[in-house]
């Protein structure tokens, strides 16, 4: 006979969460994340920041604290205290080191297909200055001249980015903390609350949109949830999030590329639809499957 320990907070079997509690917890985490992130001075009764950098650093600290609290709350609700193995506990939140390159490369390639038009447009813009360009003396610009002049410019750009708080916000803090809270913390709760996979894929972005813009946010949230559920690895939605922040909205067409961007966009979308399920097959990201409704098996007691 298997003795199932109780979750001391809910009274339910450990790993089982009432659906209403799961939804309420997800809503609370979303509201807390947004409130403390967008109004840290008001909520924490702090003095006004002296500069944009200090304001953003304050927001970074708030996002980290909010994420840590959400992880702790999720762990308590899921009854993860019964696990003695730290990697197993981290694995519940998709923090894993196994199958890491698959979790990075395949979702990143899949996401890039949606930006085929944008990539063609950017490539077109990068190539044009070196083709038929003229110097002040009227001579054609040679390819090695372009490489020589672009190298220090790239180093200066990289150095500038490293010191830019908005770069840290868009490409580091926001992707990591948002995916940790809205995917790693909420999806296991909804799973153990009895929600089905496709319900979670379309429900979890709703929490992400509490206080944030709708539309694109909901679409990306559904895609990120899909990646997290299929791969069982938090790094997959994180790399997709960073890539989307770098690229912005996808380019559907561009007159500068003489139709090449449009063709690439259509081809990329077709490739994305064709590869969506094969490239995210759970068997590619997990060494074993035990038939549980979630990828780690923490809510199964059979």
Automatic annotation (TrEMBL):
Its main location: endoplasmic reticulum. The keyword Aminoacyl-tRNA synthetase does not apply. It catalyses: Hydrolyzes the peptide bond -P2-(S-farnesyl or geranylgeranyl)C-P1'-P2'-P3'-COOH where P1' and P2' are amino acids with aliphatic sidechains and P3' is any C-terminal residue. Keywords: Endoplasmic reticulum, Hydrolase, Membrane, Protease, Transmembrane, Transmembrane helix. InterPro entries: Rce1, Rce1/LyrA-like_dom. Its EC number is 3.4.26.1. It is found in: Endoplasmic reticulum membrane. GO terms for biological process: CAAX-box protein processing. Residues 165-247 form the CAAX prenyl protease 2/Lysostaphin resistance protein A-like domain. It is a multi-pass membrane protein. It comes from the Eukaryota. The chain crosses the membrane at residues 20-39, 60-80, 100-120, 180-201, 207-229, 234-253, 259-279. Pfam families: Rce1-like (PF02517). One of its GO terms (cellular component) is endoplasmic reticulum membrane. It is an enzyme of class 3 (hydrolase). Belongs to the peptidase U48 family. PANTHER family: CAAX PRENYL PROTEASE 2 (PTHR13046:SF0), PROTEASE U48 CAAX PRENYL PROTEASE RCE1 (PTHR13046). This is intramembrane prenyl-peptidase Rce1. It comes from Elaeis guineensis var. tenera (Oil palm).
């Amino acid at each position: 006979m298997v003795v199932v320990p109780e979750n001391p907070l809910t009274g339910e079997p450990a790993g089982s969460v009432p659906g209403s509690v799961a939804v309420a917890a997800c809503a609370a985490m979303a509201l807390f994340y947004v409130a403390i992130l967008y109004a840290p001075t008001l909520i924490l009764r702090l003095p006004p920041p002296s500069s944009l950098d200090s304001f953003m650093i304050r927001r970074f600290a708030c996002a980290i604290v909010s994420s840590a609290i959400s992880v702790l709350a999720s762990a308590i609700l899921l009854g993860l205290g019964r696990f003695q193995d730290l990697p197993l506990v981290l694995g519940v939140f998709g923090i894993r080191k196994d199958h890491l390159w698959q979790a990075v490369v395949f979702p990143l390639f899949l996401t890039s297909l949606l930006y085929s038009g944008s990539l063609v447009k950017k490539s077109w813009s990068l190539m044009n200055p070196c083709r038929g360009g003229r110097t002040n003396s009227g001579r054609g610009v040679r390819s090695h001249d372009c490489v020589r002049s672009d190298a220090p410019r790239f180093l200066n750009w990289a150095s500038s980015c490293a010191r830019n708080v908005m770069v840290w916000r868009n490409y580091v803090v926001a992707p990591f903390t948002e995916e940790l809270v809205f995917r790693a913390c909420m999806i296991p709760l909804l799973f153990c609350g009895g929600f089905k996979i496709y319900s979670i894929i379309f429900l979890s972005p709703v929490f992400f949109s509490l206080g944030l813009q709708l539309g694109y946010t909901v679409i990306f949230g559904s895609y990120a949830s899909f990646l997290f559920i299929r791969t069982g690895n938090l790094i997959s939605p994180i790399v997709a999030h960073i890539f989307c922040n770098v690229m912005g909205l996808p380019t559907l067409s561009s007159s500068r590329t003489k139709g090449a961007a449009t063709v690439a966009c259509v081809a990329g979308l077709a490739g994305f639809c064709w590869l969506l399920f094969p490239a995210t097959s759970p068997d590619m990201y997990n060494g074993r499957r035990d038939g549980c409704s979630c990828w780690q098996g923490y809510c199964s007691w059979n």
